[in-house]
Amino acid sequence: xxxxxxxxxxxxxxxxxxxxxxxxxxxxxxxxxxxxxxxxxxxxxxxxxxxxxxxxxxxxxxxxxxxxxxxxxxxxxxxxxxxxxxxxxxxxxxxxxxxxxxxxxxxxxxxxxxxxxxxxxxxxxxxxxxxxxxxxxxxxxxxxxxxxxxxxxxxxxxxxxxxxxxxxxxxxxxxxxxxxxxxxxxxxxxxxxxxxxxxxxxxxxxxxxxxxxxxxxxxxxxxxxxxxxxxxxxxxxxxxxxxxxxxxxxxxxxxxxxxxxxxxxxxxxxxxxxxxxxxxxxxxxxxxxxxxxxxxxxxxxxxxxxxxxxxxxxxxxxxxxxxxxxxxxxxxxxxxxxxxxxxxxxxxxxxxxxxxxxxxxxxxxxxxxxxxxxxxxxxxxxxxxxxxxxxxxxxxxxxxxxxxxxxxx
Amino acid sequence: xxxxxxxxxxxxxxxxxxxxxxxxxxxxxxxxxxxxxxxxxxxxxxxxxxxxxxxxxxxxxxxxxxxxxxxxxxxxxxxxxxxxxxxxxxxxxxxxxxxxxxxxxxxxxxxxxxxxxxxxxxxxxxxxxxxxxxxxxxxxxxxxxxxxxxxxxxxxxxxxxxxxxxxxxxxxxxxxxxxxxxxxxxxxxxxxxxxxxxxxxxxxxxxxxxxxxxxxxxxxxxxxxxxxxxxxxxxxxxxxxxxxxxxxxxxxxxxxxxxxxxxxxxxxxxxxxxxxxxxxxxxxxxxxxxxxxxxxxxxxxxxxxxxx
Lengths: 409, 308
Known about the structure:
CATH topology of chain B: ABC transporter involved in vitamin B12 uptake, BtuC
Helix content of chain A: over 70%
Number of helices of chain A: 18
Structural class of chain A: mainly alpha
CATH class of chain B: Mainly Alpha
Strand content of chain B: under 5%
Oligomer: heterodimer
Largest sheet of chain A: 2 strands, antiparallel
CATH class of chain A: Mainly Alpha
Radius of gyration of chain A: 22 Å
Distance between the termini of chain B: 58 Å
CATH topology of chain A: ABC transporter involved in vitamin B12 uptake, BtuC
Number of domains of chain B: 1
Radius of gyration of chain B: 19 Å
Mean pLDDT of chain A: 80
Helix content of chain B: over 70%
Number of domains of chain A: 1
Strand content of chain A: under 5%
Order of helices and strands of chain B: HHHHEEEHHHHEHHH
Distance between the termini of chain A: 30 Å
Order of helices and strands of chain A: HHHHHHHHHEEEEHHHHHHHHH
Strand order of the largest sheet of chain A: 1-2
């Protein structure tokens, strides 16, 4: 409390945080609940105005950031309550709930891709191929061998990690444009192979994959609460929210730990990192495998949610979407990834009223965004160890001097 | 058919494909030299070339311009080259040049986005653009045989045009003033500007040449397969990039060699491997990846030292 008074935001900060969270939430939900394009245009205009405003007046953005940093608990609780309420708000439009779940799956995959691309600087344009590994592993295990879906979900997440070891030597040996080519070539290879193999179902793909169930509870049952009946997508929604929250916390901890700093040194200057004793190849392998496991988890859950997968689900365009989410969200910016997934997955669906033109618009928006805002929607902020140390201080009272001295330059 | 004849036949087929890939790869390698950017939308210039020729053909047909087949074919080639090159210059100025100094990932995504936009524009704006479009069979049909090796007249013409274009590009690059400007910028952009080379103009010319050459490949592809499709540029761009990389990025001869190698690789994989016909590209890409592991800068690429 003393610290809050010192910075001078205090209860004003709580109001600001709650106001931003609730207004943002209301605007997004209004987008889902209305048919026309009014709210879409309104939201987009508002977003652009905010972007420009923040770019012109960085102090404003800084104070918003500060308010959120100070009121972490309030912001998290508000966000959690609002997130849990989503299925109730969207009770009459399960389609949008489904789109939100899809966005959640992209978040899972992109958090993994961000570990590779954003944190470590390893290019991976084959993320859709690893999605396919996850999805097909889970689907085939459940279909042909009758694995329970929770088990095939776990194995489906692990197998892409194993396959990424196959690709790792080429990834390690090449750089820049050549690395891009290696991953693109791998992506095309996987899709062509999946299309031509018999046991993957060929171009028809896999049908009737068992839907997800946990401890005998099938996720395909509607939730009847007496006063309201939630569509069965609500099950998937809550599960995906849980997964995203877990991975969000996990990746944030990686980011804030010494591992995150190690990865950043590899990204910023590999040679310098190596000369300072960082095991570059070891960390690259760990992150490549871990990231692809995240991506595989996303694919595995997708196959258990939709029950049908086929090669067109895993084309190069999917990889592009995931990479653009990471870049637009802001490399190595975990919260930005979540916002980027929402934007890039929900907006094209909302753009259905422009019908055929939406992919063209998508391409053009991508170009414009990257030319004018290449560092992402939310600008990158360096790690703030003062805050972390301040929070850790009560626990480490015995050796206060050494912790501050260990602050990286 | 003896093994030798099979070998010759497959080599001819591979050369046909290879010369098209070479023409695509030339553009990619030229842009890389001048702007240090891999233009992933280049495959869509290839696709545009085919569609521009289709549009010009139906235009000529409706106006009643078609007198002789030869004149029509020349008209299609020249018209499509000019139109595609114009698109190339416009997109270069609007999208590619602004990101040439940006990190590689940004330029990569911008050009990929540009490719999506071009592809979708064709799909939406061309009548029933989602379907494969039949290409007029203007070249003389029929074939002749040497032993058991069958050679179609069409292929001879396509191959001759390809070789002609390669010679022309080579002449432009090595013998003319704008060619030396391109080479100078590729070697050192700033030094070239100090010597009075107009960088913007050089970039325009490079994109003009690259897109026009890709358009030729697109038309050749149309004649060869008898159809064009809005999404054929995506894979063509990746193959062109692979070919340019195999040959060594920035090296025009390397791109030509790389393209022909890729074509041969594909046809021989299709002919010799079990399930090769469907998986020929899997094999070709696999070789590309292997190649990059052992020879990361290409056949004709220079040795690169990293400065620390």
